[in-house]
Amino acid sequence: MSADLLNNNYVYWMDAKNGKNSDIVISSRVRLARNLNKLPFPHLLSPEKGDQFIKTFKEAWRQSSNQDLQKMTLLTFNQLSNLDRQILMEKHLISPDHAKNSTAYSGVLVNDEGSLAIMINEEDHLRIQCFLPGLQLSESLARAQQIDDALEEQLSLAFDERRGYLTACPTNTGTGMRASVMIHLPAFVISGQLNYLFQNISQLGMTVRGLYGEGTEVIGNLFQISNQITLGQTEEDIRGKLASITEQIVEQERMMRRKLEADMKYQLEDKVGRAYGILTNARVITSNEAMNLLSDVRLGVDLGIIKDISTFALNELIVAIRPAHLQRKAGTEMEAFERDIKRAGVIKEKLIKQMQD
User: Beta-carbon neighbour count of residue 123 at 10 Å?
Assistant: First the structure.
């Protein structure tokens, strides 16, 4: 399993046909932060305490009768190269900070398709995650809760009757839940309405981040929207609020796209056509330029301007053109300019094959 996950581009959240509103919402994720009683948080773990944790966790995992847990594979980071960890990060299975770890008591428990993953000793001892395509927050929460319940049968978790689940960062205390959607909003950007949207989202207790979460840049008109507050709310409260806000954003994005089609038909078609032309002819292309042009092509696909490219192929390219995936495909380490050459070839091959098929 680990070989497939590390050597292929595929992750289940790419399967747009299986998700609701997947023309705009790329994926949904629910993450539950949990810690074990009487053990220091990960940033304070000594090697001895770290070994104690991983042994306790392995025993709980193996004794659980939960079928999803039984089908998952444990990858400890001392087993993985830096490139392997970067590949997991580029697939959104672990965070950028987590990818920097290389200890025997840090790692990830993950299933074959990458829809379920537990980050081990990132900021918290356990971060249980479910990723699904499109807008599927209810389904993501239900699956994450099942894993949480199964582990809680085997482990003594840090929990306070008044405060809820105790976490390394106070902003996660309470439910320990972060729900997020990755969403494509080119019409908001073209229409100049993005700052207005961000202000409204912030007032509703949500936050907007870049492609790989906190501290990462926004590229390709792709945004992560997630809850800011976990204390004093139930998991269902958080899920319902984010789902409602996301559905409103989706409707507004669709309305603005229709307006752009009516008011800027030729400019829009020109923008999409130029993007496709560059992507299928470029010999050298940076990651940021590629993501921005792929955003234009994605908009063209959604509006029917381009007919023969699948949303799945565009989702796959989000991952396939990242540095670690390019180097794995090439079978060698590459400097930035070499990656730019390889990236152009990967994109051209994928898009032309789509049109031919």
Answer: 18
Tokens of 129: 């995650």
Residues 218-239, buried b or exposed e (16+ Cβ, 10 A)? Answer: bbbbbbbbbbebbeebebeebb
- CATH of region 2-256: 3.30.590.10
Helix axis angle for 287-302 and 336-356, nearest 10°, is 20
311 burial class (0-12, 13-18, 19+ CB within 10 angstroms)? buried
Q: How many other β-carbons are positioned within 10 Å of the β-carbon of residue 133? A: 24
Torsion (CA) 93, 98, 102, 103 in degrees, nearest 10: -100
Q: In the numeric block, which tokens belong to residue 321? A: 């053109």
Q: What digits encode the pLDDT tens for the residues 262-301?
A: 999 999 999 999 999 999 999 999 999 999 999 999 999 9
Q: Which two tokens stand for residue 113?
A: 């398709």
What are the tens digits of pLDDT across the range 118-160? Answer: 999 999 999 999 999 999 999 999 999 999 999 999 999 999 9
Residues sharing a CB contact under 8 Å with residue 237, sequence separation 6 or more, in sequence order = none
Report the candidate in 30, 18, 11, 191 with the shortest Cα–Cα distance to residue 111: 11
Backbone angles phi and psi of 345, in degrees to 5: -65, -40
> 223: helix, coil or strand?
strand
Radius of gyration of the chain (CA): 21
* Residue 263 CB neighbour total at 10 angstroms: 10
**Tokens 């490219």 sit on residue:** 309
**Strand segments (E) across 215-258:** 222-227
* Percentage of the residues of the chain whose pLDDT score is greater than 90: 83
Q: Which residues make up the CATH 3.30.590.10 domain(s) of the chain?
A: 2-256
